[in-house]
Fold:
Amino acid sequence: HQLDAYLQKLIRSGYRAAVCEQVEDPKLAKGLVKREITRVVSAGTLTDDGLLDPREANYVAAICLPSHKKSRDRTDEVVGIAWAELSSGRFEAGTFALHRLEDELARIGPAEVIYREDDVRFTPDTTAPWAWTPRPAWSFAEDSSREVLCKQFSVHNLEGFGFEADDVPALRAAGAVLTYLQETQRGELDHFRSLTAHHRSGFLQIDAATRRSLEITRTLRSGSREGSLLGVIDLTCTPMGSRLLADWIAAPLIDRQSIDDRLDAVQELLADPSLRADVRSTLKQTFDLTRLLARIATGRTGPRDLQQVARTLEGLPKLKSKLEGRSPARLAWIESHLHPCPQLRDQLHSALADECPVFAADGNFIREGYDSELDQLRQLARGGKEWIAAYQKRQMDETGIPNLKVGYNKVFGYYLEVTNSHRDKVPQEFIRKQTLKNCERFITPELKEYEEKVLAADEKAQSREQLLFQQLRAATHGHLSTLQEVAVAIAELDVLVSLAEIAAQRNWVRPELNDESVLRIDAGRHPVLDVTLPQGEFVPNDCVQSPEAGMILLITGPNMSGKSTYIRQVALITLLAQAGSYVPAEAAEIGIADRIFARVGASDELSRGQS
Structure:
């Protein structure tokens, strides 16, 4: 029960912790009970709710430099990066230019990065906000990486995953990540069902310094989520949606059709306030299905987890009915992936009590009436306990000892306890078992006979309940792939309805996107200050960039006159538009950008008016 508290202290101090548990039933053990290390916990391999921020992904990443010698032209060099989240099963990899390593790690935001311990060309940056873990060279080998990946995904080769001939560094990094997870978890990783090829060409590129300057997910001064762009626009109802929104903001799109698909969905949700309200109300009653499934896949689930899966499934028919027949492509896709799994839902609902404990060992979580055998054993155990209460009263009456009581301990079971002041009233048939300072303890043949019945029924009831729990967990595990699709669909719906909600609250507009070299923003407002300042206090600004109007705007002025705010405002409106969001302006025409650069004073923090 103290595990989480100690793990948190160890991990935050930069350590890894090995968790050792009993792996043998003490009743069946001969001599010492067998213990083994069941998992190794590090910054990037956390799965426990108490150690994770529900709004943030917790990635372990691996970097792999090619084995050839260093090129004189640094731009020719590449690096493979893979990142995985144990608590969700998300797994991606890509090959990037080496000079973009810092930028990509800043985008991913891993908690831990593993690297080849013998790579003399690489020196970890100890000032980075993630832990560095060296790994042996063999775990990055191409052959072993392909082998471990193919075995995990049950395929003969990796050609179907979208990787190209020059993506070998990415696959080696992915193999290293998977090997590390298998070593540390010592169990199944069934929720890792695919490896996504991340092609940088599909996303807006933002370097690490720009990411910091624009305060996209963290403020410059305090590193806090509050006061950042993400902190302000996040009106999601679920942890899954919150994490997906962070992904969308960290990596906006550059494909106009994909952006418009998102905007079409936001527009539909914005135009129908009752639809939006109903969807948000239902989403607030769902649980973090992504992380629940990860615990189920790794065998670390409890009754409450299964209960939360059932309650999440109960809301799906309502969501499906609200989205049915909607024309936007993304809403139609979401509706088709909200699988209600009625058989599993009904099984979990009928089996689990209204209030379930976190751990199965705590017991009493199977609902009365679900299993007749368990009901009979419980009734027998309860009847025995009622008999013991009646037996205590009868002995008090017969002996005249008013404070006689029946107690229990693990050493010799049930006993009769008599204080020294009434010792002379003890009948001859009482058998003395223990003498204490102020009392004596006795047993009787009749008491021992009923004790055996009670304890046997109690023990059998506990064993039966654990067996039923294993069956429920196996049934849920059998729906793992389908439930993962449901989790992805819920997360995307949550993000889209969140973007529609902030557009409604702040009177944001749909940007017009095109492939021209143009940027026109009418009465634009800084997204963060638009929300954090009192209504009407922020002064809107226009921005016009085009081949005719001029492609370079030069801004001058004294300190604290708003130059940084204006620069950030234009950049963030562009970023929001390409993420698929409405923007704070009266009108906006955005020529799709492929990169954003920004350098602002390192000690600025706009949300606090500090410069």
Q: What stands out?
A: The mean pLDDT is 90. The radius of gyration is 31 Å. The first helix runs from residue 3 to 12. DSSP finds 19 helices and 18 strands in the chain.
